[in-house]
Specification:
The protein is mainly alpha-helical. Among the domains are: about 1-105, no CATH class; about 265-340, no CATH class; about 400-585 and about 645-665, Fumarate Reductase Cytochrome B subunit (Up-down Bundle). The chain contains 32 helices and seven strands. The chain has helices at about 1-20, 40-45, 70-75, 85, 105-110, 120-125, 130-135, 145-155, 175-180, 190-205, 210-215, 220-225, 235-240, 250-260, 265-270, 275-280, 290-295, 315, 345-380, 400-425, 430-440, 440-475, 480, 490-505, 520-540, 545, 555-585, 595, 600-610, 610-620, 620-625, 630-665; strands spanning about 30-35, 55, 65, 95, 395, 600, 625. A hairpin with an 8-residue loop joins strand 2 and strand 3 (about 65). The chain starts with a helix and ends with a helix.
């Protein structure tokens, strides 16, 4: 034993001399070459001695760097079958040469765990920005990637692998800084669990302030005091290897998703808010979990020190909404429509809107199916109504240029609102991120949405103003307000509807209509309801600070529900029922261009509006309604415009229905 100690001491002296000054090496020192066959005993002979160290300065009195290796710990690690020289591949001789780097390249070794693809290929194929947001990588990673090679690629993409500001020759954190050097335990069993809980202190070695806050949180207290394995540690939120700067969007979004791995119900309810919808689309400028609950010092909402406590909530909201009012405090960021006891207003609003959706679609879809069935019997052949107008055929003026322009602008506004709004509403759908990117991001989409809303409101209120001005200027008598040219509903509409039902089932003749039909009147009055529901709720969501001064916060939860549900109702109704009534029924298929040209053939007018035709003839006003046929150029332009709008509408309808189904099944 004494002899072994003497040998170890001699080896230590040789190593000290070699690393201090190569010029002092005596001629009698004979270095031993190191190869892959060199045994661990040659290394342990020096490094296995407790207290073995070398000075870091120029003299032996300077601070020493410890070089002792706990042999028992090494033998119990996952590297027990690896030789020392397998990791310390840059060692060429014993005693070591002066200025030997003594670096251990964990990445190079773990790359060999999966020969293909190489680590640089993994880096190129695993885009940390997309991966952490939860989107598929582009291009997707290869089907077979070794576990260790992938982790090596993630590490190389992380902030830990970047050069340290203090020492550019070293990374911010090397593998050994987190995993240790020689006592690396397996990833399973009790040892792995102990390592996981101990990792908090390891991370805190560099992130001291974060560790202090974490230890004072509901998470950290349970880990520190009870060693609770169910509580999250640093790697559960920040990940183990895909660590990016918390100041960057990928980390913010990834942490939000990781919070939901434990708080699933809260994440689901959060995603129904505008905050959560934007984060789901891959953008981080709205409030996330840590913005409300803090990043590390998370406390229960009942705790007076919690940022989400009722006494502190307004200050928390002001972190983003600088002018937030008292109404913000009662906003429910995790409210849902399934818990009547906790969120009665949201429950009632949701059930009312669902009942409205069901009633409207059931009524009008059945009406359309019966209509289609009956017209198909009368027109069994598939007829495309695309014939060019005859030059000698008289036409009847139906819509003025102003009305046609208003209709076109209204269609543009509605389709823009539908695209920008439902992309956020169905943020979890597979198509939403791509569409949002095409729109320029949520901020740009919000601006576009509001411009379209302003256009819609201008057309709506401008129309009402024009009616009032015309009525006052011409002193319209009361009988005209309820006459055949009026869009106000009357008893004749009920009689026409009953007659239409009898015709559907072959129990009577098709009813004769005047200037307006009952379904056209419904199309006209529907925007009044929509303007009230969608417009008012949208205005509240647009200016929450103003409305929050005199409305409680839960009203904004209700506004979010009715705004989205009413938008869904309007979109599906327009692009199914309205499209069918105007274009897709056999008598009109595939397109009716009267709203674009403003006129229709006299023969078609006689067939569709026999009562109005007879009235105009009887009153001697028919000739004043006759106009020349639209030009061939006008017809072509109208068809191109009409088909374009129909295609856009059907595409939006498909996206909305896909988003609705995906949301329903998730």
């Amino acid at each position: 034993m004494a002899r072994l100690s003497l040998v170890a001491a001699a080896a230590a002296l040789l190593l000290l001399a070699a690393t201090a000054d190569a010029a002092t090496r005596r001629p009698s020192d004979k270095p031993v070459a190191v190869s892959a066959a060199t045994s661990d005993a040659a290394c342990i002979e020096c490094h296995g001695e407790k207290g073995f160290a070398v000075p870091t300065g120029e003299t032996g009195e300077s601070r020493r760097r410890q070089l002792f290796v706990e042999v028992e710990g090494l033998r119990a690690s996952v590297h027990t079958k690896e030789k020392c020289v397998a990791c310390h591949a840059d060692i060429r001789q014993i005693p070591h040469r002066e200025n030997t780097r003594h670096a251990v390249d964990c990445v190079q070794c773990h790359e060999k765990q999966s020969p293909k693809p190489k680590v640089d290929e993994v880096k190129a194929q695993i885009t940390i920005t997309q991966t952490m947001v939860g989107l598929p990588s582009a291009p997707p990673p290869p089907p077979v990637v070794g576990k260790f090679a992938a982790q090596a690629g993630h590490y190389l993409d992380s902030i830990h692998a970047r050069a340290s500001q203090r020492d550019p020759q070293r990374p911010n954190a090397s593998c050994g800084d987190c995993h240790g050097t020689h006592e690396i335990r397996p990833l399973q069993g009790r040892a792995a669990q102990r390592f996981r809980l101990k990792s908090v202190e390891t991370c805190g070695g560099c992130h001291e302030e974060a560790l202090k806050q974490y230890n004072n949180s509901v998470h950290g207290a349970a880990v520190k005091r009870r060693g609770d394995p169910d509580m999250p540690v640093c790697s559960d939120c920040h990940s183990a290897h895909r660590i990016s700067s918390v100041k960057q969007d990928p980390a913010k979004l990834a942490i939000t998703e990781n919070c939901g791995s434990c708080h699933e119900k809260e994440l689901k309810s959060y995603r129904t808010t505008y905050h959560g919808q934007v984060t789901r689309l891959g953008y981080a400028h709205t409030a996330k979990c840590n913005d409300c609950h803090t990043g590390h010092q998370v406390l229960p909402s009942k705790d007076p020190g919690a940022t989400t406590h009722t006494d502190n909530r307004l200050a928390t909201c002001k972190g983003c909404h600088k002018q937030a009012s008292a109404g913000f405090v009662s906003f429910e960021p995790h409210g849902n429509t399934h818990d009547y006891k906790r969120f009665p207003a949201m429950w009632i609003a949701s059930k009312f809107m669902l009942a409205l959706l069901g009633a409207v679609f059931l009524f009008f879809w059945v009406h359309s199916l019966l209509w289609f069935r009956r017209e198909l019997k009368e027109h069994p052949g598939a007829v495309l109504h695309l014939a060019a107008p005859r030059a000698d055929e008289p036409y009847v003026q139906r819509f003025s240029a102003g009305v046609r322009l208003a209709h076109l602008l209204l269609a543009f506004a509605v389709m823009t609102l539908a695209l920008t709004g439902t992309t956020v509403l169905y943020a979890e759908s597979f198509w939403a991120p791509a569409v949002m990117q095409l729109l320029g991001g949520p901020k740009a989409a919000a601006i576009i949405h509001r411009i379209a809303a302003a256009l819609f409101a201008t057309l709506f209120f401008g129309h009402l103003l024009a009616i009032m001005v015309r009525a006052l200027r011409h002193r319209t008598p009361l009988r005209r307000w309820f006459g055949p040219d009026s869009l106000l509903p009357n008893l004749q509409d009920i009689r026409d509807f009953a007659a239409m039902l009898r015709w559907f089932f072959g129990k009577g003749a098709r009813p004769a209509f005047d200037h307006w039909t009952y379904w056209e009147k419904f199309d006209y009055w529907a925007p009044f309801w929509g303007m009230f529901v969608i417009g008012l709720s949208g205005l509240m969501l647009w200016f929450p600070v103003f409305f929050g001064q005199f409305l409680p916060g839960w009203v904004f939860n209700v506004a979010t529900i009715v705004h989205g549900e009413e938008a869904f109702l309007a979109i599906v109704f327009l692009f199914t029922v309205h499209f069918f009534n105007s274009h897709f029924r056999p008598e009109k298929f595939p397109l009716d261009i009267v709203m674009f040209t403003g006129s229709m053939p006299l023969q078609e007018f006689q067939h569709e509006r026999p009562l109005e035709y007879e009235r105009l003839v009887r009153e001697g006003r028919l000739d004043r309604s006759l106009v020349p046929p639209p030009s061939a150029r006008m017809v072509r332009a109208s068809r191109m415009l009409g088909f374009t709008l129909i295609v856009i509408g059907l595409v939006e309808l498909a996206l909305v229905l896909l988003g609705f189904l995906q949301n329903l099944l998730s």
